[in-house]
Specification:
Radius of gyration: 24 Å
Bound molecules: zinc ion
Helix content: 55-70%
Number of strands: 14
Strand content: 5-15%
Largest sheet: 6 strands, mixed
Strand order of the largest sheet: 6-7-5-4-3-12
Length: 535
């Protein structure tokens, strides 16, 4: 990606730290409702709650209980945000997308906190039972946590997953926090507004140790989140807007990452050997310096927005069910959502499908029955066949000698191959081929799954396994690193790290033993990364 053509702001738009413009507040909430978790704030229309609507724009499907007029206004802002980030931050195509980003916008914090974690105003929510796992941005907006800012943070993560899947956590959160404050008005877009809350944290606690921030990984980062968010924001701000040629170098680093280089190699190529002491001094100097705003001309592309479609009560419950967390309470509430959805609309294909997903693990026969009901309504729906294939595969594992079971698996697999287009469906097909050692077919589907959704960590994990089986451990290692980088926040899967170690060892061994004799360790270290060289 190219650095966007930006100019430094005039003296009018320059400001000192701690002197931030009105409205520059945090996405993170410091105060939570005392009632949160006790009394559900979400009340469905049938019980006297607000009406919900769905609106479709070129890049989003928005579901919300704001009035249709308010929803339209927000959606126009969201389209502008997409346009700005795509054009200036990630140099991406802004044309129509194959899969629109799903956004659920709650009209109040209390409603959002029925499904989203406290102390947040928005996040990607992943459905733990859904093999298609289409993440949804769930968020609310109010005066402090303006919807546009929350959206810009989450949308940055979306672009990073797509274009910079190797981005380490400090860069991922640093860029999201940096672009969150982007504002535009009257033909101008302004980047890098000061974050009052982060500056306060830095003033109170100082700069986080850079060794931990840069090299500590996601677990350490989120352990002390507000401290590390502040440090990551400052570092990205400096790299983007700092004195000298910082910006050009930063974009050469981002471009190197985007071209598939490891984070270590990309850093070395743009900044030389990582010198933590020097970087620390630069950050401290930057913290107390005067910053200029980055300004660019911007005219939003006109966006066509569909008329608001009112959701039925059943569809409202299905919207909420997708967002419930995986705790015992979250699972129980999700079941209640599905019961209500089915009670009001017993023939709802989607409600039958979603209940089947939740029963698939323990009650595969019930799940099969529900999926048949869903397929009776929509016989060509690839998601239903995807679920059916997995349910039948699971049932077959429980009774491997059943001939009917084997035939059912084959029938569902054939349907999935002919209809499946989503990254996750292609990944499921790739995994099935891998288990059967059909590696050429597996590789084809795995590569298509990653092309379809570069942010799909499971697809990259599968691709790494296939590359490893095909004796390409260095490529497997690079893919596995990306898979781990892309894991949703809070999800830690030891199996992914186990495989990473295995590929690391294999890369090292293969590098050191070539037919021409032993390769010097330094050359192999360049492949495996200095911090991870096996002893
Ligand atoms: Zn974030």
């Amino acid at each position: 990606m190219m650095p966007p053509m930006l100019s430094s702001g005039s003296a009018k738009t320059a400001w000192r730290k701690g002197n931030c413009p009105p409205g520059a507040h945090a996405v993170k909430l410091l105060l939570c409702s005392l009632l949160a978790g006790c009394i559900p704030a979400l009340i469905c229309p049938a019980r006297g709650g607000p009406q919900w609507h769905e609106l479709v724009s070129p890049h989003y499907v928005l579901t919300t209980d704001l009035s249709p007029q308010e929803a339209r206004t927000e959606l126009l802002h969201f389209e502008e945000s997409y346009d700005v980030l795509a054009r200036f931050a990630f140099a991406a195509s802004t044309g129509p997308v194959a899969e629109r980003t799903q956004v659920v916008l709650f009209r109040s914090p209390a409603e959002y906190h029925d499904v989203g974690p406290q102390q947040t105003a928005g996040r990607f929510i992943h459905h733990p039972f859904d093999p298609e796992d289409t993440p949804v941005i769930a968020m609310f907006g109010d005066y402090v946590n303006q919807p546009r800012r929350v959206l810009q943070h989450e949308l940055s993560h979306f672009f990073i997953a797509r274009y910079l899947p190797s981005a380490p956590v400090w860069l991922n959160e640093g860029l999201a926090t940096y672009y969150e404050t982007t504002v535009y008005d009257n033909g101008k877009v302004v980047f890098g507004q000061a974050r009052e809350d982060h500056l306060r944290t830095l003033a109170q606690l100082g700069l986080p140790p850079l060794r931990r921030l840069l090299l500590g990984g996601a677990d350490k980062f989120y352990d002390d989140a507000s401290f590390h968010y502040a440090g990551a924001w400052l570092l990205v701000h400096m790299l983007n807007q700092g004195p000298g040629h910082q910006r050009t170098r930063f974009y050469s680093y981002l471009n190197a990452l985007a071209s598939g280089q490891s984070p270590e190699a990309a850093w070395r190529g743009s900044y030389g050997e990582l010198n933590l002491e020097h970087l620390d001094q630069e950050c401290r100097r930057y913290m107390i310096s005067t910053w200029d705003a980055l300004v660019a001309d911007f005219r939003p592309a006109p966006a066509v927005i569909s008329p608001a479609r009112q959701l039925t009560d059943s569809q409202v419950h299905l919207t909420w069910e997708r967002l419930r967390d995986n705790s015992a309470a979250g699972r129980a509430t999700a079941r209640l959502d599905l019961q209500e959805a089915l009670a009001r609309e017993p023939g709802s294909a989607e409600a039958n499908y979603r209940l089947a997903l939740r029963l698939a693990g323990e009650q595969p026969q019930d799940a099969e029955r529900l999926l048949r009901a869903a397929l009776a309504v929509h016989p060509q729906e690839p998601r239903y066949w995807h679920a059916m294939f997995r349910v039948r595969l699971h049932a077959q594992a429980l009774s491997p000698d059943s001939e009917d079971g084997a035939a059912g698996v084959q029938q569902a697999f054939a349907q999935l191959v002919s209809l499946g287009r989503s990254a996750r469906a292609l990944d499921t097909i790739a995994r099935y081929h891998t288990e059967r050692e059909q590696l050429d077919e597996a590789l084809d589907f795995a590569q298509r799954s990653v092309d379809r959704d570069p942010g799909c960590w499971a697809c990259r994990d599968t691709l790494a396994q296939i590359l490893s089986k095909m004796d390409s451990p260095a490529e497997a290692l690079a893919e596995q690193r990306r898979a781990i980088n892309l894991l949703p926040e809070g999800l830690s899967l030891p199996s992914l790290h186990r495989r990473l170690k295995q590929y690391l060892q294999a890369t090292w061994t293969k590098c050191r033993r070539t037919p021409l004799g032993a390769v010097p360790p330094e050359a192999c270290r360049a492949l495996t990364g200095p911090a991870e060289t096996p002893p």
